[in-house]
Amino acid sequence: MADDLNRPLGVRPEPGPRRKRRGGNVLGIAAIALAAIAIGLTAYLAAREPQTLTLAGNPAATAGDPAGQGGTAAGPVNQGNEEPAMTGAEDRGNEEGATDGLTVLQPDGNIAVPRPRPPDAEPQEAGLAHLPDPDLAEQGATGVVPKRGPDGRRPMDVYAREPDTTGNFGVARVVLIVGGIGISQTSSHQAIRDLPPTVNLAFAASGNSLARWMQEARRKGHELLLQVPMEPFGAGGGAPGSHMLSSEVSAEENIANLHWAMSRVTNYVGIMNYQGARFLADAIAAKPVFDEIAERGLLFVDDGSSGANQSEAMAKASILPYGRAFLVLDQRRTRQDIAHQLEALVKEAKRTGIAIGVSNGFPETIEMLAEFARKAGELGVEITPVSAIVNDPERDG
Quick one: which of 64, 156, 289, 356 has the most CB atoms within 10 Å? Predict the structure, then answer.
């Protein structure tokens, strides 16, 4: 199975209806048959031998990547006591003179709200949320990959979690994304157990037991993302066999590596970069990947770790649903520093209506986020799934 997983993708998916959404939510099969097929897909994924990525080491600092980490943010979790790599994202919490506590700020009236999904884009029923929808999956060279359904339904809609509220003016929304799920088994369990289902969990393509963690997270109600490794500055194209998307290989090879990552798990709404400062700065290399993500009905989240990239412009050109993180919450892993970042996130949400914060699945981060979630209402913010607030050209018109 390991050889199959590392085999280059030999064929492109068959063309089918992509962008045009049709009315109706026809499954075309009885509920029992759907569940049986979905269970089969899940069992296939669970039986696969876990793979491990070999990512490049820390590159030297370069322009647009001041920390010299090539755009690392919410990435694979260290299982030991090693400090997380610093990122190119700004440490905005300390700009505001934040203290150890969280300051309650009042909304300023400049609040954006997510729009309700159209009737033909309803999420899965709760009882089926841990099962892949057979109409939204196809067999690729390395495993099952997502696709749009024959009726035009998108995985980003079907596997989405509805926000607690929609269309209500005056709500400041924060999106919390915890990355590296599947790297540390202990931290993965802690995140799923302790964090509320409104928090997004991002699965590392390099992780282990991803099908198991996916099922547990979806049963809990979490909305999922997939972290795909992308080339940082100084990586030299990445190590052989790393499946890293690179500016130094062909579009076909990048699509093959994207499909490998996509086949590691199911039931996610979109892709988030792991590193990628160099790759996302190269529109010629990255644009075909963005086209492919859009064609398959997924969204893209830029983790915000690289300031000088082309992701937003490419997303617009690809008609790709897109969001960008405002900050990284745990560049420094002390409670005080994480509190500073959370305070900055709250302030930004109340200023603009929406703010995305990404983090690693470190135990101390999970503890702080669980504590923050319990107090979110008192702080005047609502934790909202990322699918509800991305800029979506298809949904928003």
Answer: 156
